[in-house]
Amino acid sequence: MTMSCDDAGSSGVRRFEVFTGVGKRRDWPPEVKASIVAESYSGKESVSAVARRHGMSASQLFTWRRLLRKEMEERGIALPVRSREAPMFVPAVVEKQEPLPPAVSSKPASRRRSSKASTIELEIGDALVRIGSSADADTIAAVITALRGSR
Fold it and tell me: Which phi and psi (to 5°) does residue 99 adopt?
């Protein structure tokens, strides 16, 4: 049995990827950590944007922030909490509207086959009835009476 994706070693290299950026383990001096964490609390940028700019993963910066909060709480020092504004909503106004008169035809005109047969269209209220040209007068009268009676 042959498979479409044979062993990778049997075919030549067609594509390879080079990963750059975050990935190697670094040792951050405490002053640099403190500076980056303080910058993430400034509110000017998102935490992820600060992390990207310093070439680190956002999860690492969130961990540093969490550890700092924990350490500060143990010392009895509270970090300033940025107040979040309540979300604003636009008030909705619902007004009762009078029903609109029925439109003559809101549907685009469809191409009709060239045939000699014609139809009658009756629109009474929300009902639309098409009656072929072969219908007799009694059938048409019965349909109209039935539609008027159902109103």
Answer: -65, 140
How many angstroms separate the CA atoms of 147 and 127, rounded? Answer: 8
Q: Are strands 127-132 and 119-124 parallel, antiparallel or unpaired?
A: antiparallel
Q: Is 4 a member of any domain?
A: no
Domain count within the chain: 2
Alpha carbon distance 75, 73 (integer Å) = 5
Domain range enclosing 61: 24-75
Segment 96-105, tens digit of pLDDT? 777 777 766 6
d(CA 72, CA 65): 10
Task: Please give the single-letter amino acid code of residue 80.
Answer: P
| Cα(118)–Cα(130) distance, integer angstroms | 10
Could you tell me the pTM of the whole model?
A: 0.40
